[in-house]
Amino acid sequence: MTHPPAWTPPGASTADIDRALGDLQAVSLLLLLSPTAERDLADFIDDHFAHEAGARTFGCLLHLCGDADGARFWWQFAAGAGDDAAEYCLFLDHSQCGEFHDAEHWGRQLALHRFTPDELLGDRTAAPVLTEDFTSCVADYIVERHHPDLGVIPFPKTLLIRHVRDLTPIPTKPPCAT
Predict the structure, then answer these.
(1) Fewest beta carbons within 10 Å, which of 77, 91, 92, 162?
(2) pLDDT at 166 > cutoff 70
(3) DSSP code at position 124
(4) Residues β-bridged to residue 172
(5) What is the pLDDT of residues 55-113, one digit of tens each?
(6) DSSP string covering 3-47, please?
(7) Where on the phi/psi map is residue 48: left (φ > 0), alpha (ψ -120 to 50), or beta?
(8) DSSP state, 82?
(9) Are 96 and 10 in contact (CB under 8 A)?
(10) Where is pLDDT greater, at 130 or 91?
(11) Structure confidence at residue 77 (pLDDT)
(12) Are the C-beta atoms of residues 174 and 129 closer than 8 Å to each other?
């Protein structure tokens, strides 16, 4: 007997798109607040930006700062290196943008790997919510470089590692009670 995935395949309804965006926000924040995030970002920088978990974590940071193109670039890098969580981020990102063909591709990849977000992230509805000052705090730790073929690519500054724990817990608030 086949069990359905713990995530919903993309649909064209506004509710599906809104849910994908909400899930992407929660997933990005949970991954950024994870116990391994600081080490993953350090490995990413130390390995000259070739560490898939660090690339995924940095993509989550960029997403939370509103840099959708930068986030997608690093999630694609991480997914290409086999990071299931990055594939899930891409699934949600394409879903929330209404790019259902691309979302279905990542959904098939997730199904092949038998990925379930609840196993990796727990309850996404319990994720805290970012306050608006988070983006301005993080901008000082990101530098953009121009690549002749790929365009502008954001990279973390080394100082980000020292300050990631200072940046993430302070500008969050608990989710609203319903």
Answers:
(1) 162
(2) no
(3) G
(4) 130
(5) 999 999 999 888 999 999 999 999 999 999 999 999 999 999 989 889 999 999 999 98
(6) PPPSSPPP-SSHHHHHHHHHHHHHHHHHHHTSTTHHHHHHHHHHT
(7) left
(8) T
(9) no
(10) 91
(11) 96
(12) yes
175: which 2 tokens? 């989710």
Distance CA 144, CA 157 (A): 10
What's the CA gap between 125 and 139, in Å, rounded?
27
The whole-angstrom separation of Cα 60 and Cα 71 is 6
Is the sign of the CA dihedral 119, 125, 131, 135 positive or negative?
A: positive
Greatest Cα pair distance in the chain = 51
3-state secondary structure of 154: strand
Q: Give per-residue pLDDT as tens, 22-52.
A: 889 889 988 988 889 889 998 998 888 999 9
Tokens found for residue 61: 């940071």
Q: Are 65 and 134 within 8 A, CB to CB?
A: yes
Query: Contacts from 166-169 at CB under 8 Å and sequence distance 24+?
Result: 167/134, 167/137, 167/138, 167/141, 168/32, 168/33, 168/37, 169/33
pTM of full prediction above 0.90:
no
Residue ranges in 67-121 assigned as alpha helix (H): 68-80, 84-96, 100-112, 117-121
Pairing assessment for the beta strands 151-156 and 142-147 based on DSSP bridges? antiparallel
Estimate to the nearest angstrom the gap between the alpha carbon of 14 and the chain centroid: 21
